Amino acid sequence: MAASTPRKTSTRKAVAPRKRPVAKPKANLGIVLDDDSAKAETEALVAEREPLFTVGGVTYTIPKCVPPSWSMKAYRIAIEQGDSAALAFAVDKLLTEEAWEALRECETVTPTAWEKVLNILVDRILPDGVLGPKA
Fold it and tell me: In sequence order, which residues have a C-beta less than 8 Å from that of residue 100 and are 6 or more positions away?
């Protein structure tokens, strides 16, 4: 009788049944500052505007309120770089390029009007007294 060849057995390892992932409790993230609702609220805040000045029959506006991040940045700039740098930041954030150009190019801006506009810009982005008492 012929010898039989040994039978090949499967070399596959036994696979353990998959465990279903246990739902992890949501981590306490505190106040989420950059979610979609916060972004929408900030955009709406900046979108609500009021007139600042008129030149050549065109009225230029600024936001009625600004995001707190703008104020914090302006404050830090004022402390680290001085009032002029903080004013430059305020102008950049609050005025459109067209408004800034109209203001710069208007040859009939009086010193009083110029001072009022700049004070409004600074007051809008920084709370009263942050840069010290007004002269």
Answer: 91
DSSP code, position 82: -
pLDDT of residue 135: 47
2 Rama class: left (phi>0) / alpha (psi -120 to 50) / beta: beta
Give mean pLDDT in consecutive 10-residue pieces for the chain, a chain of 135 residues.
60 68 76 90 94 97 94 94 93 95 96 95 79 50
Question: 3-state class of 62 per DSSP?
Answer: strand
**Parallel, antiparallel, or unpaired: how do β-strands 58-63 and 49-55 relate?**
antiparallel
Q: Look-up: residue for tokens 């030149």? A: 55
Alpha-carbon gap, residue 27 to 30, rounded angstroms? 9
Q: Provide CB contacts within 8 A for 12, sequence distance 6+.
A: none
